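[Automated response] Your request has been received and processed.

Submitted sequence:
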Amino acid sequence: MKNIKLIEVPSEIGAGTRGASMGVDAIKIAALDFMSNFFIHFPSEKIPTENKLLYEPIESPYAKRIKGMVTVYDRVSKAVCDAMKNNFFPILLSGDHSTAGATIAGIKMAKPKSKLGVIWIDAHADLHTPYTTPSGNLHGMPLAISINKDNQECAVHEVDETTVKHWDSLKNIGKIAPKVLPEDIVFISLRDYEKEEKHLIEKYDMKVISTKEVRNKGAENIVRAVLRYLSDCTDIYISFDVDSLDASISKGTGTPVSNGLKEREAEDLISKFMQNRKVCCFEITEVNPTLDKENLMAEIAFNIMQRSVNVLMMS
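Generated structure:
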């Protein structure tokens, strides 16, 4: 039985739409609505944010609020690292997806010798850099940070020195870079990405599993194939962005995209992955209740989390 620790990261300085910082509380509200005492069962830690920066002028247009992000990365990576060193299985509830790079850093800091595999369940590739970003939002960059790539060959921006300095410190947090090799990342339900990201996916032959493939082959077969593909890895981190779900259900998130997973498909995939002993950390992100009428997104996120934890408790 695994000891679980919840790490709450209500940071949203990496997102373009406001409100993701409230996602963590929305998931807790969903738990209460379901009469669940889930959140009193486990120790939890809340990471202080730099969300005050949302009220200040943007200094780095191609990596918005990156200075604050360096601070948040420091806090999140330490929390994840400490939890793992104390034999906890960290479950992260984060506002926007940008801090996933800090989660990955924390895993590597706790287990520097590990070969880490990443299962990225997301409509987006999150492989942009300050040189290629169309928006400047850092939640489009955590995987580029983790694989330590600038993707200069696709550069469309001249990036100022201060931004470069902060970007380099994000990539080198924990003094390990890269944290993950591109070939050890598996994208599931990826369907909305730019040519600059496509360049990296093709260059490093990164594995992409479409929604259609999940539907045709079934969760069981997909999970088996992914774990076989990552069989060299000693540890696996699963990151679940709720926008991997179809836009018809993922209204409560900043960047909904059609042709996504059904709630049941996501739940089946994640709970089957969780049965594998190599999985060492799970993150759920991008719930934005301000875009949602009935708190549906948070309820779905809570259901997925609860089922995953039940699997962990039994394994």
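Summary generated for your ticket: The chain has one domain: 3-314. Residues 3-314 form a domain with the Arginase; Chain A fold (CATH 3.40.800.10).
If you did not submit this request, please reply to this message.
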